[in-house]
Design goal:
183 residues, mainly alpha, 3 strands, three-stranded antiparallel β-sheet
């Protein structure tokens, strides 16, 4: 079982700057490497599949669709920008760019937050609701065909549990955590 997929770099390239002891690299096993690469392939292909479907049907990428859905599910179809960035798992800068594009289409508008002069809300417009109603059936079918129709109920449940564990592990709750929506 190969635990080092590539030769180690020369010692001069990996020597620590201090004299503190270094921890030995825990290389992936061949099976872990296979699972990792298969996972990356599947996620990349799935995201591309959904992006192409949404671009074709609504002229928007998958991430924009997800923002519209979250706003539609929110009270009064509005969320603070920071909450929306947290939901989408993206930086505030990337969210701001996405909202600007959605505003240009008339699907979202920004409103100032009355209790916080620096805060803003993203608000789903009636035109945004209309584009969701028109696009949702095709999107749900694309998701079903690409993923759920290929898995048994047991596999779906296992995948959901695995992804929950991974996501929870990557979202530390301590102060100062380096998470996209905090950047």
């Amino acid at each position: 079982m190969n635990t080092a997929p590539t030769p180690a770099p020369p010692a001069s390239a990996t020597a620590p700057a201090s004299s503190a002891p270094t921890q030995e690299t825990r290389w992936l096993t061949d099976e872990q490497q296979r699972v990792w690469r298969t996972y990356l392939d599947a996620v990349t292909l799935l995201e591309d599949h959904l992006d192409r479907q949404l671009q074709r049907d609504a002229g928007m990428p998958h991430i924009y669709y997800g923002l519209l859905v979250k706003l539609a599910e929110s009270p009064r179809r509005r969320l603070r920008m920071t909450e929306l960035a947290m939901y989408a798992k993206i930086t505030r800068s990337r969210l701001s760019h996405a909202i600007a594009r959605l505003e240009k289409n008339g699907w979202v508008r920004r409103e100032d937050c009355p209790d916080d002069k620096r805060g803003q809300f993203a608000v789903l417009t009636d035109a945004g609701v209309a584009v969701l109603k028109e696009t949702a059936p095709g999107h749900v079918e694309a998701v079903r065909q690409a993923m759920f129709d290929r898995l048994t109920e047991e596999q779906q449940k296992a995948l959901g549990e695995i992804m929950r564990i991974v996501a929870e592990g990557l979202q530390p709750t301590e102060a100062g955590a380096d998470l996209p929506w905090l950047r």
